[in-house]
Structure formats: structure tokens, C-alpha cells
Amino acid sequence: MDAKEKIKEGVQLYFDSMYESDPGKVRQAFHPNAMITGYLETGLAEMTVDEFAEFVESQNPSPKEKGDEILLEIVSCDIAGSTASVSVRDGYIGHVFLDTLSFLEKDGEWKIYNKLFHVES
Length: 121
Prior knowledge:
Elements: H1 3-19, H2 23-29, E1 30-40, E2 43-48, H3 49-57, H4 63-66, E3 72-80, E4 83-92, E5 95-106, E6 109-119
Parallel strand pairs: 1-6
Antiparallel strand pairs: 1-2, 3-4, 4-5, 5-6
């Protein structure tokens, strides 16, 4: 499997973690040192992977259980060696987000090292 396919799998795992409210999948998708950062209505939000995993887990029932529409679009994917920048549009908890996911390849695995998010609507 080439890098682009592995990154696509990582994006899907990331989305599935939120859609299913699964903290284990959050921790699989992200590098342990990753940060999740962006602006919400309340201002700047900054989370560690564990904090983000707890937030995702707290969404009960999960978007999947509620039957929320699936919105997941890879807008762009730029790979440079063992790094990649992926722009993703996704629907989550009543909003449409534009996420910039920075991936890092280590030991053959691609993990999200940083997530910047913007609320589109």
C-alpha cells in the first residue's frame, strides 16, 4: 500500500473515531504528542490527544447512533517525504469543519501529528 492510501486510511480512522464516539480510535489515529487546535464560538480551543479523545467519547449518543449524515471529503493531500498535509471537510456535532491534518510517517505508520480546525458552518 502506498503512502497516499495509508494516509486516506488514517483520515477515515480519524472520521470514524468521531462518528462512533470512539476514544480508542482517536488514540490510534493521532500521534501521542499531537495537538488539536482551532476556534469555536467560545474562542480558541486547544486540546491534547487525551483531551480530544475524552471530548469525542462524551458525544453520546454518537453521531452514528443518531443517524447523522456522513460528510467526509478530502479536499487536498500533499505528501513530502515522511510528512503530509491533508485538508479535510467533515461534518461533526452539527457543524461543518475544515480541518488541516498534518501527518507524520514513522516506522511505516502514518499518524496525525497536528490538527488545526476551522468551523465553516
